Prior knowledge:
24 helices; two-stranded parallel sheet; 2 strands; single chain
Amino acid sequence: MPLAFVLSNAAQLAWTEWHALWSARIPRLLLNTLVLASWVAVGTMVVGVSTAWLVARREFRGRSVAIWLMVLPLAVPTYVFANIYTSLSASVHGMAGAVFVLTLASFPYVFLLARAALDGQSRSLEDAARSSGCPPLERFTRVTLPLLRPALAAAVAIVVLHTVADFGAVSLLRVQTFTLAIYHQMSGRFDYQGAAGLSLVLIVLTLTLLILERFFRRKQRYYARAAAPPRRQPARGAELVVIWSVLGSVALFALAVPLGWMFVWTAEALANGAVGPAFWGYTRNTFAAATLAAIAALVLALPVALYHARRRSAASATALQLASVGFVLPGPVVALGVLVAVIAVAGPLYGTLFVLVAALTIRFLPLSVQAEEAALQQITPSVLQAGRSLGAGPIESLRRLVLPMMRGGLTAAFVFVFIDALKELPATLLLRPVGFDTLAVRIWVESSEEMLELAAPAALMLVVASLPAIWLILRAGQPTRG
């Protein structure tokens, strides 16, 4: 639906209008978007893989707390990060500021998938490398890191999709990317054709990146064996200092500073009586929309991921890429595409919660597809063959073998969509039913009016609302130690 909206409106652009876009705007937007996505991908890889390796391969006091500290930044919206750091330091602005903010907000995706893959690796592989005299750094680069490629590819894809579609942080930091330009084209100039033209270029760009990522790992298969995961080595002395220096620095900038800001302003709001019944209504609305969208995305992503994981073909690849279109489009374009379709074929649903949930599901379906497919790729085909040889049909194999073995991926899919739906802003602004404000909407409204003491309680509630979901994903990712 959003893709049809983009194509139909872009087709109405005259040649002179396309020429004006290509000569004046698109080259700069293309360069900014690619530079931003590249640096954020590098930053999240460095931070996410290093922190994941430390908690997966070393045993130390406070390790469980450290894992929570690395995951909780997922609950902080990018526009909250941008608000906080621009108010604290004038140096956080432009491209460098956007890379800093989006890296802090996005590295937990890499951390979660890398840690799950590290915990799922067979102990025998690293033990064999160690017994062959392979030093620690070489073991990491030649054994551990290659086995992480499917999980890291999925994580980087998620990070890139988040970055190119981000609206809140880039708008506050004044970085001209496709998403911000499209929003201004639609809201300021009401030029839907121009916005559709820019959106079409953004779709082609993002799908090209995803196709290249798939191409370079098309023949790579890394399956998890049913064996004990690697032992965690106890950390002592100087090594313990290094571990907490790394983890503590990341936690300071990605969590402690934002939470401190939220607590200070929330205390002021409570003292002034600014948190009332309406606030709890916003919280209920947010939970309802995010939960429904996460369930819908979890269910709809499974056949796409199964189809591509088990039947590698042009048709399955096309289905996978089409399922990613919603996330490469900015929120306003997805919202308008859904709105146009609903008005055309299901008028009575206009203005209901169904329309908002549909847009959120389309918007974040790629998160669910990526997480589920990454889990499916690590299931050894021989396990399914053994099930078939014992008489299990496709449905029974799915129920008794596939779904239990991809529990971590399913949980990650639900949590990723749930948390992102909690924070979604542009689509919610356009499609929410009358009187149906969410926490993200209230944060944006209060922040735009410089009333930070009123925005902070909603931001803090987003973090609190994310705690059960994060607990689920951490619990599902716990390996069985042998």
